[in-house]
Structure formats: C-alpha cells, structure tokens
Design brief:
With 201 residues, the protein is α+β, with helices and mostly antiparallel strands. The protein is built from two helices and eight strands. The strands form two sheets. Strands 1-3-6-5 form a four-stranded antiparallel β-sheet, with no helix packed on it. A four-stranded mixed β-sheet has the order 2-8-7-4, with no helix packed on it. A hairpin with a 2-residue loop joins strand 5 and strand 6.
Length: 201
C-alpha cells in the first residue's frame, strides 16, 4: 500500500529541514576551527637574550599560504632589523636579522595568511642584553595583542547573532521550497494516476 500524499510531503519537508539545520551548524562551527595559530617562536615571548639572534622563526599549528606574510623586528626607535625575504618551511615562517643589534627592547611584528585564507597577526616582545626599563608600547599590529595571534572568525560586517538568524531564515526558505516542490510533484502524480489507495486524503 502506498503512503498518503500528506505523509510523503511531511517526510520530504522534515528531511530538508534537517539538512538545512545541519549545514547551518557546520557553517557556524567551521570558521572558528579553521584558523591556524602561533604555537611557538624564536625568540620566545618576553625572552631575554644575552646575544642578538640571527633570525626569527615562528611556528604555527598548520601550513600557511605563502602570500601576504610579513615579519619585521623593530627596536624602541622603530628601526627595522630584518633583512632578506620571508621564507616558509613547512609550518614555520622565518626571516634573517641584521648583525650589530644593540642591547634593548625589540618587537617581532608579524602577519601571515592562514590556510583558510584569513590573515592572523601578532606582536612578540623580546630583550637583547641589559635593556633597562621597557619603553612605552608602539602601535600594535592590526587586531593583535602582544604575544597573541588574532583573526576575525565571523564574516565581515555580519555579527554572530545576525548570522544565526540568517541561517535560520535560510533553513526555513529551503524547507518551504521543498514542501512546495514536493506537494506540486505529488499532486501531479495523483492527477495523472488517480487517487491513492482508498482512505488517502
């Protein structure tokens, strides 16, 4: 015995609603999980070195996109001490430093592009020799606090609450469209082949 038309419509609508809800939840969860993160650095955050380093090495949680990256090392006078080009080595980004760095406070200012295409950035302070009191902090990298990496995990211009509402509306539209399509299809079948089994609506 075939199912009543209304029964088939309910099944199709429920399946479409579940699919829409699942895709919406995945859309919310994916951006927060996709960004790579800084896991270690040489020099380390706040490290005091007796001699100037020869290079800066940043270790990330995954491979990066080899574009749009930058690492600079500046002293208290905003002079840059990096030289050469930024190099990528598996999950590491590195750059050489000039010789003759005097004692003092330095900042590693970095920005790289995560494998999901989002930029992440941060600042790592370190000291060479007897630096004395730390000078006033200079302008920080966009969206980053000292020693921390950052990335906007939301779509630009769409706050989280609004995103959730939009996802819900999208699910409702998909479910409504599925109901309309299924009802027209099944009504056409009934028209072409007669009514369903006795007792169907």
């Amino acid at each position: 015995m075939s199912r009543p038309v209304s029964g088939w419509i309910r099944i199709v609508t429920a399946a479409l609603a579940v699919a829409a809800m699942t895709s919406g939840l995945l859309w919310i969860a994916e951006p927060a999980q996709a960004h790579d993160q800084l896991v270690a650095s040489t020099p380390a955050d706040g490290e005091v070195l007796q001699a100037p380093p020869e290079e800066v090495v940043l270790q990330f949680s995954g491979e990066l996109m080899e574009l749009g990256g930058i690492i600079i090392v500046t002293d208290a006078a905003e002079q840059s001490w990096t030289e050469g080009d930024l190099a990528y080595d598996d999950t590491r980004a590195r750059i050489a430093l000039q010789g003759g760095m005097p004692d003092g406070w330095y900042e590693i200012r970095w920005q790289v592009v995560s494998r999901d295409g989002h930029p992440i950035s941060g600042i790592i302070p370190f000291v060479v020799g007897d630096a004395g009191e730390r000078p006033s902090p200079a302008a920080t990298a966009p969206g980053a606090a000292n020693g921390q990496d950052s990335a906007d995990t939301r779509e630009p211009g769409v706050p989280g609450a609004i995103r959730i509402v939009l996802i819900g509306l999208a699910g409702a539209v998909i479910a409504g469209g599925g109901y309309w399509i299924a009802s027209r299809f099944l009504r056409r079948r009934v028209t072409q082949h007669g009514t369903d089994e006795p007792g169907s609506p």
